[in-house]
Amino acid sequence: MRKFYGVSLDSPLMLGTAQYPSPAVLEAAFRSSGASVATVSLRREGGQGQAFWDIIRGLGVHVLPNTAGCYSAREAITTAQMAREMFETNWIKLEVIGHADTLQPDPFGLLEATEALAADGFEVFP
User: Fold this and answer.
1) Which helix (H) or strand (E) holds 118?
2) What is the rounded CA–CA span in Å between residue 8 and residue 36?
3) What is the pLDDT of residue 44?
4) What number is the average pLDDT over the span 103-108?
5) Active site residue 93
6) Domains of the chain and CATH, by start
7) pLDDT tens, 47-69?
């Protein structure tokens, strides 16, 4: 059992929710893996809407929203704040892209966003 920010998880495995060929495959992957956490991108969730949420809730996993696709600290902070409202969690997997071609992170942007989000009560995952 692992603990993250005081939350005990049966499994430390975290799975993303993007790019599955169908909702059924997404659900099967989570059930087969035993993952305790689903990472979710606010910016990438397209037209799946309520059906997507019904699957995630049905799995009984913790939701870890992320800031995928953000190119600045300000953009990541805004995305994190929206994610907290939508997903009702202080957890955030922080991503700030520094180079569009390689998707390498921006360490200075990550630090700036981490400081601001932590001061705002977020529990930041790198």
Assistant:
1) helix 107-119
2) 10
3) 56
4) 97
5) yes
6) 2-125 (3.20.20.70)
7) 556 788 888 889 999 999 999 99
